[in-house]
Structure formats: C-alpha cells, structure tokens
Write a structure and sequence with these properties.
A six-stranded parallel beta sheet has the order 3-2-1-4-5-6, with helices on both faces. The radius of gyration is 21 Å and the shape is elongated. The chain has seven helices and eleven strands. The protein has about 220 residues and is α/β, with parallel strands linked by helices. The chain has two domains: about 120 residues, NAD(P)-binding Rossmann-like Domain (Rossmann fold); about 80 residues, Alpha-Beta Plaits.
Amino acid sequence: MKVIIMGCGRMGEQVARLMDAEGHEVVVIDNLHSNLTRLDTGFKGRTVKGVGFDRDILIQAGIEEADAFAAASSSDNANVIAARIARNIFRVPRVVARLYDPRRAEVYQRLGLLTISSTTWGAERIRELLTHSELDPEVTFGNGEVCLLSVETPPHLVGRFVKDLEVPGEIAVPSITRQRKAFIPISGTELHSGDILHLTVAAVAMERVNALLNIDG
C-alpha cells in the first residue's frame, strides 16, 4: 500500500513507523525539517518538506498513486483541508483526519471525512480505567464506542454457554482461548474453567458486562 502521512509530530511519526514496519510504501510530509528528522533512524520511506495541503507538494509526495492518506498535523484546519483535497481532488481511496477538537467531528463527518479524535479516545480510555479497572480494554474502536477485552471465565459461569453472555448489539464473544489455543465459539459453546473469553463490548454496555461477570466497577 502507498501511504502519505501529513504531519510528523508524535502521532504522525508513530503511524509512519508502524506502516513502514508492515512493509507499506510510506511518504511523510511536514513543513519543518526538524520534525522530519524524527524519522532519521530505521525509517525506510521518504520524507517531503512542505505544506501538506499544497498541490505541488502532494504531487511530489506521490498522491496521484496513493492508496491512503492520513492528515495527522497539530492543526485541525490544516488536517481537514488536506483530507478534503486528498479525497475530493485526488480521489485517494482511504483518507483519515486527526482532530484535536471532538466537537468538530460531526461537521467533518457530514463532509464525508473519516476522523479520529485523540482527545475523545483519551477521555474514554481514562474513564474506562477509572471505572472498570478489572476489565482493562485491550483495543478500542472508533472513538471508544466499542472495545475488545479479555477475562478468565468466572466460577459462576463455568458450565454455562456463550449465549448466556451475548447481548445483540452490545456484547459478543468472537473468540475463546482454551489451553493456549484460540477458537471461534458458537452460541452453544460451553464455558470451561480457565477459558479466556475475548469480548467485544459497546461502551454503553460496560455496566451490563460487570453485572454478568460479577465484577465491581
């Protein structure tokens, strides 16, 4: 995949390194040379110095052949402008814009832009850790609306079935690890002692999960 990342702050750098390590062809744009030097060690992609929503700079970065574009600078306005140019002018298939102000997300979504708010995600993550410390999410999706967590089968659920845990639209059991081997269960799969249950849970259903597992929040 050919990926262009605008902005080489902490987030842009980390995204660039992750994509680069996975073998993608990565180009990073930033108007400060000092930011681009973050990638001096171990990065196999290219860097382009310039404004990330400048047409000539984008073409220099290869946006005409890009499969994905991430606007990850420290400016919400710059990110949205760049994302709209990438999506509407150069027709890049996958475009994501980082937002600091989550209040703008709805407006940008109306424009057809995928956004991620580190503020919203961070706030939701802190709330989860403060109120549900026994159920520490391993991964969150979107802006924290859905999370993936793992928990050992509590004694009172041993002998019960997957269907006793699942709630449509709120809680699902996509996988169970039993004796170090994972498998995809069905609704009639019996829960064993020592099973690690991998649950996908809507944020609004965390209290329900606590109740099902008898865990105090």
